[in-house]
Amino acid sequence: APQKSQEGTCKKTKVAILGGGVAGITAAQTLSNASVHDFAILEYRDTIGGRAWHKPFGKDKDGKPYIIEMGANWVQGLGNPGGPQNPIWVMAQEYGLKTHYSNYDNVSTYNQHGYSDYSDLLDAYEEAYSIASQRAGEILTQNLQDQTAKSGLALAGWNPKPHDMEAQAVDWWSWDFEDAYSPLESSLVFGCAGDNLTSNYFSDHDNFVLDQRGFNHIVKKQASSFLRENDPRLHLNTEVTNITYSDNGVTVYNKDGSCVEADYAICTFSLGVLQNDAVQFSPELPVWKQEAIQKFTMGTYTKIFFQFNETFWPEDTQYHLYADPVQRGWYPIWQSLSTPGFLPDSNIIFVTVTNEFAYRAERQSDEQTKKEAMEVLRKMFPEKDIPEPTAFMYPRWTSEPWSYGSYSNWPPSTSLEMHQNLRANTGRLWFAGEATSPTFFGFLHGAYFEGQDAGRQIAAIMHHHCVNANSTKLRECGPRKHYETLHGTSPYSDYTTLNGWAFSSFIDTNTD
Ligand SMILES: Cc1cc2nc3c(=O)[nH]c(=O)nc-3n(C[C@H](O)[C@H](O)[C@H](O)COP(=O)(O)OP(=O)(O)OC[C@H]3O[C@@H](n4cnc5c(N)ncnc54)[C@H](O)[C@@H]3O)c2cc1C
């Protein structure tokens, strides 16, 4: 049970911002820009940036460790000249973040016998994907029944046989590598809409972040535009354990016994944190909210890093795709950092695994994971005499109590209305973050837009006026809508800012 609030013992503020990731910091910045300066940011860790999280790894020729990203690594969908720009890319440019173009066409394919050219399968996938994606658009606009991405792709001509492991590897690289979930576990409609929104509305260019200050450098810079050094409004090392909410205010209790009483709160904790009951809510969250929290899925995406004393792989190749003869998703994609434009001469390569294979790696020892992955490398490059790595490391995302997983995904048979229940406020408690973005879930820019939106809405309510009054005739003030009863699909007329759908998934700004 929550501690009883003893009158006058809690710190008082207008807006409590729970979490100092991109959503929380952007919400605070937005409030600040709207002249709401009385807020408090409560953050579990000793730094801001959340899932934009790095660690030192290995060493360079001077013995200094490299900084590598455990979490977010790309700015995805940069934007085209004259077109809409990804706000993360805008900040990356403004703050001089070091990035390099990620070329997904620069991929070599392998199987258990070494190099094997099955790149024609990549083209076959692409062809089917564009058909499936159009079909997804029809389903969305005509309010039809959603499908799994797997069935959508199969109907469009991409139907990898269970034992065709090269096709399975291509399937993994083309879908799971971004969504963390397989096409069978993903919504066709929202998987395709999400992909269109980032790679067409912005652009199909992604840049990989190599900045030795870490990706969260831009979040720190963003924060420094409205927070002073040692600003008393930023509370690091503060773990929220209970959130008591009503139509009149929110009281937040922390593990260290402190508490904050606010007129409004914005909870930006990950879907994984919400799903794992890491925080208690009083009263219990309403059923429509609990259903939404448990319906959407939290994926795990694990990068396993190796440093060697040489670069024995072709250093000009960015991606190496491995098809295991037995298991789909078995140490499938190897990314070289020891490549011009990245961290040349670092002799660092990493392999990414997702979900089941990520959980497995978390449960077993580092030694076991290293052994399995090294066997794969030796199969990919049979002609090389591959030494043991000099450094080895990987994060355990589902065990991190401040994240419980990597990023969210939409399973099949969801709807925009169901998702809106994830976004909707319960009394004075608001929700924002990567997972509450229907258009950009899973991305840093999703967290950014949702933090901005919650900040704007709350500032508008506090100032008794509406935001964006010119851009839409819809009423955007006041509490967010939620749906007590769900009907399985959402009519196209639902696709408005009222349900968080502020961008069109039918715009393609790419010229090629
Ligand atoms: C492995 C991985 C790879 C990714 N790759 C990319 C990528 O390449 N490109 C991209 O755009 N996105 C990527 N993402 C997604 C991106 O990192 C997230 O979308 C984004 O960082 C989410 O921001 P947020 O503010 O919503 O949540 P978070 O960053 O999770 O912020 C929430 C904050 O709340 C804090 N918190 C949690 N619980 C408590 C508590 N009880 N008390 C107090 N504080 C608490 C956390 O410490 C955290 O700082 C990746 C994520 C991961 C994990």
From TrEMBL:
UniProt-recorded name of the protein: Amine oxidase
UniProt enzyme class: oxidoreductase
GO molecular function: oxidoreductase activity
Record keyword Cell cycle present: no
Biological process terms in GO annotation: polyamine catabolic process
Entry-linked InterPro entries: Amino_oxidase, FAD/NAD-bd_sf, Flavin_amine_oxidase, Flavin_monoamine_oxidase
Keywords noted in UniProt: FAD, Flavoprotein, Oxidoreductase, Signal
Domain named Amine oxidase: residues: 22-458
Gene3D superfamilies to which the protein is assigned, alphabetical: 3.90.660.10, FAD/NAD(P)-binding domain
Chain residues that bind FAD: V240
Family: Belongs to the flavin monoamine oxidase family.
Cofactor: FAD
EC number: 1.4.3.-
